[in-house]
Amino acid sequence: MTDHAINEAGAKSALILIEYQNDWLALTGSINGQFQDREQFDFAVANSRKVLEEARRRNMEVIHVRMVLEPTYRVLGEGKYGLRKMARDYGSFLGEQTEFFPGFEPLDGEYAISERTGGSSAFAATTLDSYLRNSRIFDIYVMGFALRQCVESTVRNAHDLGYHTNVIYDASAAFTREQQTSFLSDIAPFYAPFRIRSAPVLGVRHPPQMLLKKQLQITEAVKAKDGSQTCNRGR
Question: Could you tell me the fold of the domain covering 3-204?
């Protein structure tokens, strides 16, 4: 993020929060128990609070996206796998579970999207794309839950729509550490090459050693993979 939410070209930017709802974040949430790496999850929630606070301090556009469904799940049709089946099996995105988790409620003037129809992407059947374009915003920062589901789907969609996309990956949680590592090494380079830690965004001097070590391991793995592909192309 740059001060006053303006980048070098003078364009505005936005922070997009994906599903900061009780279903994901509350211990009683229907999906919360799926996070096997609790350290990663707790770290992501704590970082999310700091990023949101800093975005508001800089008067940045803040957009909240949540999922709200009705008890019959009619909009999901005959879903037999994936999110459409999971939501019904777990009884997700209903009633109080759809409410924003304490500390992540939209403030007056912040745009909130709740009209999603079961799609993983925050752009699917919502007003997000039109709102961003009408606001002349093409530089977006994305964080939320879960990293390999709705965050990844939103990032892929944003790429195809032409947005300059940044993923704050340590303010987003995957279900496992392996899923987070795979996202950073295999997915982000193609759809969100500007993947950033919350620490540099916030100006924090000392990110946790565990995360720093993991980042270095991922960086070396990506370099090795790129080098191998280069050698193969040269043969």
Answer: Rossmann fold (3.40.50)
